[in-house]
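Need a sequence for this fold. Nothing fancy.
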């Protein structure tokens, strides 16, 4: 149990960083898949709600903005994982990762994007992006629970002696 307590944070942190970092290539190079998701599916949906350009290049939730947030979360998670004095960074990275991925899950479930992303050419990811996002959400939640004492406002309250 001591080994799990001392090193149990590594697997979820590494999983999140892996998923986020491997997606950066697609987001920062404007790959056809990323352009289709952000500009082909999400931006027209946002425009139908009166928010055109929200997911377009330069928009508040563009692929580059989301990719940058994922990079920051990954750096915080990794720094906090390998430098014990910086464990609070891991906790903050987990909170940021949970926020990012909660948005991703919302857009998969509540927009025309869907659980299985079907590209313009008819090819489908078979739900892989959604499954990875679910894994990131669970991993971030685990890290937040493991590091809750390091988060402001989440400190355990001591019960007064009876």
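Here you go.
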């Amino acid at each position: 149990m001591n080994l799990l307590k001392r090193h149990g944070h590594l697997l979820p942190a590494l999983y999140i960083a892996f998923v986020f970092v491997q997606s950066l290539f697609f987001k920062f190079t404007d790959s056809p898949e990323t352009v289709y998701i952000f500009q082909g599916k999400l931006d027209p949906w946002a425009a139908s709600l009166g928010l055109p350009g929200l997911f377009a290049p330069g928009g508040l939730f563009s692929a580059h903005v989301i990719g940058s947030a994922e990079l920051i979360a990954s750096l915080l998670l990794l720094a906090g994982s390998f430098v014990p004095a910086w464990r609070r960074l891991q906790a903050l990275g987990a909170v940021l990762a949970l926020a990012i991925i909660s948005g991703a899950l919302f857009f998969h479930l509540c927009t025309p994007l869907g659980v299985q992303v079907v590209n313009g050419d008819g090819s489908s990811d078979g739900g892989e992006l959604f499954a990875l996002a679910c894994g990131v959400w669970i991993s971030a939640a685990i890290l937040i629970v493991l590091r809750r004492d390091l988060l402001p406002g989440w400190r355990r309250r001591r019960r007064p002696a009876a």
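For context: Residues 2-150 form one domain.
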